[in-house]
Each structure stands twice: as C-alpha cells, then as structure tokens.
Design a protein that fits this description.
Elements: H1 3-20, H2 38-103, H3 110-116, H4 120-191, H5 195-219, H6 231-243, H7 260-270, H8 279-285, E1 288-289, E2 299-302, E3 308-314, E4 317-320, E5 329-332, E6 338-342
Length: 364
C-alpha cells in the first residue's frame, strides 16, 4: 500500500472513530419499587404484632417479679422495725441490770457477808434474789445478742431486696420501651397503607383463618365437642364472656381493658383458682391437655414461644383479647398458630404433648 493510501485510510479511520464513538450513557431511570403483595404485607404486620406481644409478655413477667419484690421489701422493712424495737427494749433492760449489779457490787464474798449478817436467813434470801438477777441478766444479754444478729441479718436482706427491686424497675422500663417500639412499628406500617390495601389485608387474613379453621375441624384434632366445663371453668368462662367488647391494652388486667393473659388470669382468679399472670408461665406451670380433650374454660396457647392465650368457649371457638387496636371477641380457635392447651383446675391430668399435628393459620 502506497504511503498516500495509508494516510487516507488512517484519516478515514480517525474520522470514523470520531463520528461513531459512543455517546455518553444517559442516566437509566431506576425501576419503580415493587408493591408488596398482600401476603407479604400480612406477614410483616403479623410479625410486628408477634414481636409486640412477646415484648408485652416480657413486661408482664417483670411486673409480676417487681410486685413480689415490693412485697418482700415491705415485709422485711416491717420485720426490721419490729426487731429494732425489740432491740431497743433489750438494750434498756440490759442497762438497768448493769446499773443494779454495779450498785449492789461489793468486795466482800457472799460467804463472809453471810457470817456478818445480823439475819442469816435474810442474807440467804437476798443472795437468792441476787442470783436470780444474775440469771435474768444472762438471759437478757443472750436475747440482746440474738436480736442484734437477727437485726443485722434482716438489714442485709432488706438492702439486697431493695437492690433487686431497683434492678427490676430498670428492666421493667426497658421492657416497656420495647413494647412501645414494636407498636410504633405496627403503626408506621399501617399508616403507610391505603384504604384499599387495608381492606385487602383484612380480607386475606380472614380467608386464611377460615381455611385453617376448616383444616383443624375436619382433621378431627379437636375431638367431639360434648364436654361440659367444670364448676370453676364455667365461672371463668362467664367472667370472660362479660368482658367481650372491652378494648385490648398491653399490660392491662382489667376491669376496663385487658391484654391476652390479663384476661385469662383474671377470669380464673374470679373462679377461685389463681393462675400465673403471663401466657408463658400458664403454659409452663399448668397441667396440659390434648386438644381432643378440650372442654370450655380450658386455656389455648399460641405461637412457639407461648406468647398468646385465649379461653376455650366450645364448638371450636375461643374468647381472646387479640391485639392493640382490637377488642375482646369470640374467635375461631385456629386464628393463630396453636401450641397446645392447659387446664387450670386439671391437676389430675397428665401433661400432654404439644399440638404438633394441629393445623393452624401460620400468619397471626
């Protein structure tokens, strides 16, 4: 190739490169954020509700421990005041005896005093009195020493109980803040939804509960519904019925508002059978019964961590204090994932295994 042709090719190539060089890339618009499905929204919302309920149960448990610790502090303070009063009296008695001994002290031995006495019989009686006073003094000093030790012990226990109370009070505040944070998350999510989304959400949740209820009842897991409540169970159930329509409030035990375990614990206390305050303690400490043996008045426990509880009404229904923003109502037993059931007045019942085969709606 001649030099001139080579220069023309190079010039053309440069020109072509100049013309055909790619233009700067234009900014690509980011895709619109995908609208979450109703199922995803429901999962998020129910997760927040569950976290709020877990935090509520933690708060309730701390509150119960704090009540017990306050009672212990008051009891120890009263006992310490009584012991200090007794200690004051014992010290006064010891002082009087010491003065009496000092006033009657002498260097003459009792034997010589008896020989020199004008009335030996009187001297003997006086010696007996002095001996009795000495024995009384020994007893008084013994009581004084024992009371001092007891006062010291009670003072140490009272200080520790007070320290424990302060620790629990700090934990209670932390638990309360956790509940409020979870509920703020619920409110934030609900506020971000349109009226149409909220309506679809409620409809989707209801459909899920109905499906779970059908699966549970057709599976035969509940058994025949012919059992009658016990006398105590009937009273607890009547109490719960009267609360229907009252608002849910976390940490509340009535009489105007309740949370889930506040309702069940008050219902059974009304029946004369006190039970633990929290759903977790109710599940841990009360006799368990299989779902097939459920009778009205029994307690139905929900979620793997036993953070929700309702009272069985019969015919596959329960009375529950559901969650913040709702009221106490009658619900299908499968409204939440079932864990099992307990019977507060069923001490003769053997513990049952967890309701692992009982189908339940896994959302709420």
């Amino acid at each position: 190739m001649s030099g001139r042709l080579l220069r023309l090719v190079c010039t053309a190539a440069v020109a072509a490169g100049t013309v055909l060089a790619p233009l700067p890339a234009a900014a690509v618009p980011e895709p619109e954020p995908r609208e979450r499905s109703v199922a995803e929204l429901l999962t998020d919302l129910q997760g927040l509700y569950r976290q709020a309920e877990e935090a509520t149960e933690a708060y309730n448990a701390t509150e119960e421990k704090l009540k017990e610790k306050r009672a212990e502090v008051n009891r120890l303070d009263a006992a310490l005041s009584e012991v200090r009063l007794s200690l004051h009296d014992s010290r006064g008695a010891a002082g009087r005896l010491a003065r009496q001994q000092y006033q009657s002290s002498t260097d003459i031995s009792p034997y010589v005093r008896l020989l020199l006495a004008r009335d030996p019989q009187h001297a003997l009686e006086q010696g007996h009195v002095i001996g009795q006073l000495a024995r009384d003094r020994a007893k008084t000093m013994g009581r004084l020493t024992g009371t001092e030790h007891r006062a010291d012990g009670l003072a140490r226990k009272a200080r520790k109980a007070l320290d424990d109370q302060l620790t629990l009070a700090a934990r209670q505040k932390k638990d309360r803040d956790a509940v409020r944070a979870r509920l703020a998350g619920v409110e934030e999510l609900l506020a971000s939804l349109t009226a149409e989304q909220l309506a679809r959400l409620a409809e989707f949740e209801e459909e899920g509960v109905e499906k779970a209820q059908r699966e549970l009842t057709t599976s035969g897991a509940l058994g025949e519904d012919a059992r009658k409540p016990s006398k105590e169970g009937g009273k607890a159930l009547r109490y719960a019925r009267r609360q229907v329509g009252k608002p849910y409030e976390w940490g509340a035990e009535g009489p105007r508002t309740y949370d889930c375990s506040g309702l069940t614990s008050k219902a059974w206390a009304y029946a004369g059978t006190p039970i633990p305050r929290t759903s977790q303690e109710q599940w841990a400490r009360l006799p368990r019964v299989p779902l097939k043996e459920l009778r009205p008045g029994d307690l139905v426990i929900y979620f793997p961590k036993a953070t929700h509880v309702a009272i069985y009404l019969g015919r596959g229904r329960v009375i529950e204090a559901p969650r913040t923003g709702e009221k106490i109502k009658v619900s299908p037993i499968a409204a939440h994932p079932l864990l099992g059931a307990v019977r507060p007045d069923g001490g003769d019942q053997a513990p049952a295994t967890e309701a692992t085969n009982a189908p339940a709606f896994s959302g709420s």
